[in-house]
Amino acid sequence: MQRFSTLPFITVISILTSSVAFSQSSCSYILHVDVSTGSDIVGCGAEAMPCASINYGIGEASSQGLTDVRVRTGSYNEIVDMQTGINLWGGYDATWTQTGTSTIIGGYSLGLTQYIAVRANGLTGGTILSDFTINAPDALIAGKSSYGIHAVASSITIQNCSIFGGDGSNGSNGTDGVNGTGTALGGANGSNGNAVGSLFCDDNYTPGGAGATGPSSTGGGNGGLGGKTDTDCSGFPFGSNGNATGGTQGANAALYNFLTWGYLGAGGGTCTDGVNGNDGTAFNGNGGNGAASSNTLSANFWLATTASTGTLGTNGTGGGACNPNNESGGGGGGGGAGGLRASAAGTGGISGGNTAAVFAVSSSIQLLNTIIYIGNGGDGGNGGISGVGAPGASGGSGGIGGGTGAGNGGNGGDGSAGSESGSG
Q1: Which of 277-291, 314-328, 383-397 has the least mean pLDDT?
Q2: Cis omega (within 30 of 0) on the bond before 137?
Q3: Across the chain, what does the average pLDDT equal?
Q4: Per-residue model confidence (pLDDT) at position 413
Q5: What is the DSSP letter of 403?
Q6: Which of 172, 175, 165 is CA-nearest to residue 141?
Q7: Region 107-115 average pLDDT
Q8: Which pTM was predicted?
Q9: What helix, strand, coil percent values describe the chain, rounded to 5?
Q10: Could you give the CA distance from residue 135 to residue 239 in angstroms, rounded to a whole number?
């Protein structure tokens, strides 16, 4: 552990290295505590009949009108709750001579839901804590912090002590995102063209395939129209002139980018195939931010923070539709629908707990001949893994051109996979 010389959230602090500045009152005001031989019974506290725990001794001292509690050497596994005007003096041997230090080993408070060794709440008059080794407990619950001495609105003097901060616990991980579900619809095929030389004149375009539909921006574009067999049917119903035309361009997907994803294919010439529409694309969500070290107080304790949840990506876009061509060329295939996005993003992780050997809020703490050591802060939890979008569908095939040398319609572009959600 590292030696730590600064304390957070303290209103007034005085750190001295002089000899002991405060001593006990007359022996007539002293109560005794011995973890080895004492008993927590009403009226305990005499040298020959000490109390067993520090907290019970503090209560007896208060009820008996005493101001000082002597604590024999040994380890005291309890969260010591100091009281105004009841000074604590550690390090006594079997003859009640001061020879060293007593050890306080803190724990988890069910009432406060916190890990603490010594608590000072609303103490006035510079109550003294002297000659103790204070071991803050390591926090075990995700995101919880560890406190050696936790003081709120108090005035206390700490002398001849060694205070060891415990480790804050690691934060918990975020929950994983939920994958997109469902099957995207494919685009419809284009219609076949007619051959030149047909008995009847035909100046109609060959229909293109319809683009697949889907929610929001997932729809594919419609296929382009196939080329006309004839351009002049004035001699209807006969009089086919065989003057074929090129096909028309297909339609863009519901969401597209110029000349790239989801963009339409160009129309084919009188003897060339149409151009395939472009594939759709996916838009991934952003990952959530990492949880920052907690600097938020709640009820005078550090509060673990939660990182932001990753954003959901958008649905995959539909593919652009292609087009047809010549001699009553086949209609273009419709674009396939894009895949659905992930239905839930990964949530952010929770920050790790902090460590504080001495933590004071609106308090005056005076340290005399006291060494403070800090523990380790907990690591923040990982963000949840993003959900994955469902794949997009393929575009429909272009229709077959009529007659020898007639071009086929181009295929519709594939719809994209739906985007992933971000992780926290």
Answers
A1: 314-328
A2: no
A3: 77
A4: 47
A5: S
A6: 172
A7: 96
A8: 0.70
A9: 5, 25, 75
A10: 105
CA distances from 338 to 13, 381, 389 (A): 64, 34, 10
Rounded Cα gap, residues 389 and 407, in angstroms: 36
Q: Token pair for residue 424?
A: 């926290």
pLDDT in tens, 7-42: 444 333 334 434 445 666 556 679 999 999 999 999
Q: Show Cβ contacts of residue 26 under 8 Å, excluding neighbours closer than 6 positions.
A: none
CB 405 within 8 A of CB 329: no
Strands (DSSP E) contained in 93-145 are 102-105, 107-109, 114-121, 127-130, 132-135
Residue 135 phi, psi (nearest 5) = -110, 110
- Determine how many CB atoms are found less than 10 A away from the CB of residue 235: 11
Q: What are phi and psi of 138, to 5 degrees?
A: -75, 135
Query: CA angle, corner 403, sides to 402 and 406, nearest 5?
Result: 70
282's tokens: 């996916």
Is 374 a residue whose pLDDT tops 80? yes
Residue where the block lists tokens 């351009």: 231
